[in-house]
């Protein structure tokens, strides 16, 4: 949903009337930012949505006059909702190909243009959809400390209590004096015998806590791009299929190191033994991801739909 918020805000800045689909994680992702870009609409999943009509009651024809662009989190949207929006789709999500798209957006480094049989391709970190809070954090943060005194952990929707426990115990053993910042979604009730102090923070404002931290452990999706932009050394565990290409691409660019639950201890230990490598991850990340991807994507969408014909374009 953070990608949707970012591109929605950028489109709104260009004068588009943006409606946000209320899917899955909308409540935690929107927070106080909902009022900044317009109406929060009940277009979400009937099964997982947090408000409004479910997808079973969705009438695509009635939606058409209501907005210029529909930004949905297709990874969380039900098949029914995706089918309902398919006739109006213009920009395709990089993970779930939807029928009718005339463009694709994939921020993963090294995204292969040849795999998309489509004319308009917005590929690579230049189009990473990051919010204004990330840019603000990037501008205000200092260089990370080594060894790290604070570690920010965000495992995403695919994170489990078991994995959170592995991360906590690993950090407790390798960085016993460090503070570990956990959003409450991953507040593991099973505490390590001894280890880092833990601070629970809300999901909203994650960029601020990334900037406060000296190192990030994450699942390798949007948070990995945010950490790169802010310049934080990152260890990524790809927990979902749609994160694999992003983690591989960022690792190839030297902005993070990849790990699994079984290799996490070894990977973190090796990283903590090499100050130059540790700090290099952050500096290369800042060069690779400048935080202006949402604006570039919005401008590209504006060019594609400079004269929308027969109705409003839709963004997935």
Write a brief structural summary.
By secondary structure, this protein is of the alpha/beta class. The protein has two domains: 2-131 and 293-315, no CATH class; 133-288, Rossmann fold (3-Layer(aba) Sandwich), CATH 3.40.50.
Order of helices and strands: HEHHEHEHEEEHEHEEHEHEHEHHHE
User: Looking at this structure, what is the CATH superfamily of the largest domain?
Assistant: Glycogen Phosphorylase B
Q: How many distinct helices?
A: 13
The number of E-state strands comes to: 13
What structural class results from the helix and strand content? alpha/beta
Radius of gyration: 20 Å
Mean pLDDT: 75
Roughly how much helix do the residues carry, as a percent range? 25-40%
Strand order of the largest sheet: 9-8-7-10-11-12
**Principal-axis shape:** globular
How much beta, percentage-wise? 5-15%
Give the end-to-end Cα distance, rounded to a whole number of Å: 11 Å
- Output the CATH class name of the largest domain: Alpha Beta
**Which second-level CATH architecture of the largest domain applies?**
3-Layer(aba) Sandwich
**Describe the biggest sheet?**
6 strands, parallel
- Count of the separate structural domains: 2
The CATH topology label of the largest domain is Rossmann fold
Low-confidence stretches: 23-61, 187-195, 308-316
